[in-house]
Amino acid sequence: MQWTLVVPLKPLDRAKSRLSDTADDGLRPGLALAFAQDTVAAALECPAVRDVVVVTDDALASRELAALGAGIVPDEPRDGLNAALAHAAAVVVSSRRAARVAALNADLPALRPSELARVLDAAAEFPRAFLPDAAEIGTTLLAAGRGRELRPHFGTASRARHRESGAVELLPDAVDSVRQDVDTGDDLRAALALGVGPRTAAVAARLLTAEQ
Ligand SMILES: Nc1nc2c(ncn2[C@@H]2O[C@H](COP(=O)(O)OP(=O)(O)OP(=O)(O)O)[C@@H](O)[C@H]2O)c(=O)[nH]1
Ligand SMILES: C=C(OP(=O)(O)O)C(=O)O
Questions:
Q1: Is the CB of 75 under 6 A from ligand 1?
Q2: Which residue, 10, 32, 34, 116, could crosslink 46 as a Cys pair with Cβ 3.0–4.6 Å?
C-alpha cells in the first residue's frame, strides 16, 4: 500500500513565529527549513510512501526539498493552509490515478520512517483518518483513501475539527516521532529528546552555541 504525501510549507521568513523566543529572526528560517528537510527525507525513506509533494511558494525550500527528491506544487489558490492542501491533493490525484493521499506537517524533525509506515498502514483501514499531535490539540497527518477527498481542517483545534468532520482518529502504539510537531521551545526540546534528523541537529547546535 503506497501513499503520496502532501507537505505544506509557508514562506520560510514567516514560518515558525511561535519559536521567536527560541530562535531569532536570523536563525528561524533555517530552522524551519531544517525541520522540513528532515521531515521530507524521513518520509521518502518510508516503505509505505511512493512520493512526497511539497506545496510551497518558497524558492529556497523548493530547491532544497526538490534536491532530496520531493515534487513541488506552487501554493494555490493563496488562500491559506487548507486551501493549499486541498489544491495540492487534487493535483496529485489528477496526475496519478488511484493515488492515496495524506497531508503531513513539515515540522516533524524527529520523524522515523518505520513509525510513519505504522500510521499509514493504520490509516489504510479507513476512508479518512488522522493522527493527533503530541499536544493532543492539533493534527500531524490526515489521510484519504482512494477516491476520497482529503477535506483538510488544519489550524486551530484541528484534532476536534477533524473528528467532527467524520475522519477516524488513529491511536497506534509507538508513533511518537510522527506526533511530535515543533511549534514552541518545549516542543523542540521534546523532539531533540526523541532524536532529530541531521539538519535540525546542526541548526540546534548553533542555537545552543548562540545561547551560551
Ligand atoms: N503552502 C502553505 N503552507 C502553509 C500555509 N500556512 C501554513 N502552512 C504550513 O502548515 C504548517 C502549519 O502551519 P502554522 O502552524 O500556521 O505555521 P508554522 O510556521 O508551523 O508556525 P507559526 O508561525 O508559529 O504559526 C507549517 O508547515 C506551515 O509552513 C499556507 O498558507 N500555505
Ligand atoms: C496546523 C497545525 O499545526 P501546528 O501545530 O503547526 O499549528 C494543526 O495542528 O492543525
A1: yes
A2: 116
